[in-house]
Amino acid sequence: MQRLKIYNGKIITPSGIMEKGSVLITGDTITAVSENNVEAGDAVEIDARGLYVSPGFIDIHVHGGGGHDFMDNSVEAFLAIAETHARYGTTAMWPTSLTSHTEGILKTIDTYEAAKDKNVNGAQFLGLHLEGPYFAMNQRGAQDPRYIRNPDPEEYKRILSHSASIKRWSAAPELEGAIEFGRYIQTMGILPAIAHTDAIYEEAYEAFRAGYTLATHLYSAMSGVTRRKAYRYAGVIEAAFLTDDMDVEIIADGVHLPAPLLKLVYKIKGAERTALITDAMRAAGMPEGESVLGNINDGIKVIVEDGVAKLPDRNSFAGSVATADRLVRTMINMAELPLEKAIQMITATPARIAGVSDKKGSLAAGKDADIVLFDESIHITMTIVKGKIIYRQA
After folding, report:
1. How many domains does the chain have?
2. Of the candidates 113, 211, 114, 117, which has an alpha carbon nearest to the alpha carbon of residue 166?
3. Are both 242 and 296 inside the same structural domain?
């Protein structure tokens, strides 16, 4: 098996940064991480030249990029999205759907199945994240209202019997049948997540106890404190903060959440419970201008400006155009986090949430050789997925 040695780099590990350290890769696996330049005479050597050497970034919520969307339902789109995000440091992802009719969801699943074994030059696919269609209409955001509905056991059991690749399903827990839905999918090893919801605290906490242990894009399309007649009620945001064991994910593009909220999330939930996500649509990695959210033929027209996608009336965001490197920069520059904490939120934390921390999320012997190299500005110069260099700055 081919061996690679990365040396003379700042190795980011769970215990700190190793100055002028080295990482040895054999085949698709890390076999040594050292503070010194390990001896490996038969290895292909990569001089990091003082760059940071980090675990690969893991994006557990991403819809598209490079001009493609997973809802385009083509193998070419899936592969192009994986290759686009790999250039920005993502080495693994959960491809994410949008609200659709049943046949549309099944088509996306079939396309994923067809694409997953052909994905050799992009970020690795770890399974599917279904976002919707079981949402609160008032919190739909840019999700297509034509397809929003309550959980239907006949429908979701049919979808789940279609494929074992579904790893996460986001829904609004206050809907009729949503608690039973969450319990059911959890028995199948699928993560229920709270999303696009008007739930009050009590409903959110009941959902947590039923298995909804992740809050999808915290603050976005989600209830906070509300008032009904004379009484105030805490919402999902407060439930996420008050429930110590609930994980949250945030769109850290610097637009969806301003600096004070980024700081607040970190202060309360910490790097251990907060995952950074792109939630990127097709315009990620593309010039600003007109674009489409969802399927290229019947999706929602949007305008991309100011580093974010907006609905044409500009009254609402319509998705992120972030890449993973931008998330890390935002948390360092706007939220004022140490580099190691920002990296933890895009590596170890999402790896744990995705159930792959035994193989991914940190640089350690025995783990997958998913590695990125970047400079002080988090500019990606190399991406390695399972020991293969799939991006190298020219």
Report:
1. 2
2. 113
3. yes
Residue 43: which domain range?
A: 3-54+364-392
Backbone angles phi, psi at 102, to 5 degrees: -55, -45
Q: Residue 359 falls within a domain, yes or no?
A: no
> Is residue 244 located within the same domain as residue 333?
yes
Give yes or no for a contact between 329 and 278, defined as CB atoms under 8 angstroms apart: no
Determine the Cα–Cα distance for residues 121 and 106; give it in Å rounded to an integer: 25
CA pair distance 107, 129, nearest whole angstrom: 14
Query: For the segment 136-169, what is each residue's pLDDT rounded down to a tens digit?
Result: 999 998 888 999 999 999 999 999 999 999 999 9
385 backbone dihedrals φ, ψ, rounded to 5°:
-120, 115
> Is the pTM value of this prediction over 0.85?
yes
Instruction: Give the DSSP H/E element, type plus range, for residue 384.
Output: strand 380-385
Q: Name the β-bridge partners of 277.
A: 251
Long-range contacts, stretch 304-312, CB < 8 angstroms, 24+ apart: 306/255, 307/253, 307/254, 307/255, 308/253, 308/255, 308/256, 309/142, 309/281, 309/283, 311/142
Q: State how far the Cα of 193 lies from the Cα of 207, in Å rounded to an integer.
A: 9
Q: 390 and 5 in contact (C-beta within 8 Å)?
A: no
The CATH number assigned to the domain holding 34 equals 2.30.40.10
What is the C-alpha to C-alpha distance for residues 292 and 312, in angstroms, rounded to an integer? Answer: 11
